[in-house]
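A favour, since you know our structure tokens better than I do. It will help me judge whether the discrete encoding reads sensibly. The space below this message is yours for that.
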Amino acid sequence: MTFRLTLAAALLSGTAALAQQTDLTIALQLEPPHLDPTSAAAGAIDSVLYSNVFEGLTRFMADGSVEPGLAERWDISADGLTYTFHLREGVSFHDGTAMDAEDVKFSLDRARAEDSQNAQKALFGGIAMVEASDPRTVTVTLSQPDGNFLFNMAWGDAVIVAPESIEGIKQTPIGTGPFKFDTWTQGDSIKLVQNDSYWGEKPALTEATFKFISDPTAAFAAMMAQDIDAFAGYPAPENLIQFEADPRFQVLTGSTEGETILSTNNKMPPLDNAKVREAIAHAINRQDIIDGAMFGLGTPIGTHFAPHNPDYVDLTGMSSYDPEKAKALLAEAGFPDGFTTTLKLPPPSYARRGGEIIAAQLRAVGIETEITNLEWAQWLEEVFRGKDFGLTIVSHTEPFDIGIYARPDYYFQYDNPAFQELMTTLTATTNPEQRSALLRQAQEMISRDYVNGYLFQLAFPTVADARLKGLWENQPTQATDLTGVSWSE
């Protein structure tokens, strides 16, 4: 009898040892300021919630393509003005309430309302009317054709939310996705658990914990000790060679939609002078920043457009490193002895490390910078909303976002009616060749106006346990999509 019990215990123990792992602890560098992707510019919110907790009518896939989301299909009128979305059947929010056409209408109307806090409100500016004709049918009427409309509906800012749960969304997000929000230990982690009532294919993971580790040294220690299973957007590229040499780990080096720029306040003197901005552009050695701050990871850019996009134009030559030219331009602009401005830096390594390098490069041509290190909440308040800055460094990770230059009230305050007209024409254009020509023209215009200092396209290194499968390598949008992640046997 004792022998049989011992054997049974051994068999059970062996079975448990062989059981498939279904939990994951994944680290990110940045913690979200709150958990409502429809009312903040912080990409860190989407990094946790996009496709995991919240879903939109359409969604981005790992390769950047746009696929059906909560809308299983749609019809487009011949004049391109009317989109009729047919919603999936049997979709419910995590609180058990049904997701229907009224929720879609509420979400789109809220995003485009006059008092909307949506960071990408312009995405919804072309919507003239939203009608819920029956629980599974939504008709969106545009004021003019928009070749980007289905793409825009895939953004994290366009996810569908419910009026019943909107009041508490910043602390308790309730979506329709394959994972439900469980807990948020502020300053440490957010836990998600599998949604048993998900309308689609259930993920392999039953729970996932997002750990927030801002310090690169702590990130290295946690990964090496295997206290975490993966680190998406690993913040210390100098360590990657060690992980690549260790069979316990895999290193994925992907690309992002993140144009990393020396963002410039175009309304603050003397930065409102185009010659001064041009001088700054020529004072910067991009490769030194890529090598010094990113240990070689990053692709130089000369405009606000992703190099992997087929319509990208290489304009780096327009702002080539030429400190003597920078000094001459400053003299022409009336600043032969240079000037002093602020350089406000958010937490990411590319900003803090890159900021020190840029400050030295600007100092060499006579421009002094007063550096202030800000946490994200401070940066959003002072720089993004308050426009209280001279220079800052930030990576714009939103997909295909050159349209932000058509918004005079956007934080870098570029106001060019010709560019605004160009974007209006682009929006109304559906012919691919004509769109390509307009996009090339747009890239050249902002490069020629030296709106910002264009530095590099952000790379996206992920370090993970060698047994993990299904992590996104690239970042077609800022997301840590766990829907296809699993452990190998």
